[in-house]
Automatic annotation (TrEMBL):
NCBIfam families: arsC_related, PRK01655.1
Family designation: Belongs to the ArsC family.
Name of protein: Transcriptional regulator
Signal peptide: none
Pfam families with a match to the protein in the record: ArsC
InterPro entries recorded: Arsenate_reductase-like (IPR006660), Thioredoxin-like_sf (IPR036249), Tscrpt_reg_Spx/MgsR (IPR006504)
Organism expressing this protein natively: Bacillus taeanensis
Amino acid sequence: MKKNLVFYTYPSCTSCRRTKAWLKEHNITFEERHLFRETPNIEELLNLIKLTTEGIDEILATRSQSYRELNIDIESLRVTELLKLMTEEPRLLKRPILTDGEKLIVGFDKGNLKKLENKKLLFNNIG
């Protein structure tokens, strides 16, 4: 069964625009979700974290202004508190985020996008 590719994006983000252009150029269909208007809920964030190799750090934008303005020790928060904070303040999430429910790509990463394209070609040739 074909998985939907979900693309969490923010239109003024350069990496998001580059990723979207790459996906369109390679005819990869996706469901676009505006990261700040359609913020992932706690369950969706947990599912994203399960796909990471580095845990929350892989999707948490620690260099963002929003993160710096928090002025709190993230390490002192429980996971549930941090997830709630990320749903309330989506600027804490790195972007873009792409997932098909099995794989996760964070940021504009041509290498991983190419793997996504190869996977699409494989499934199109099988089906």
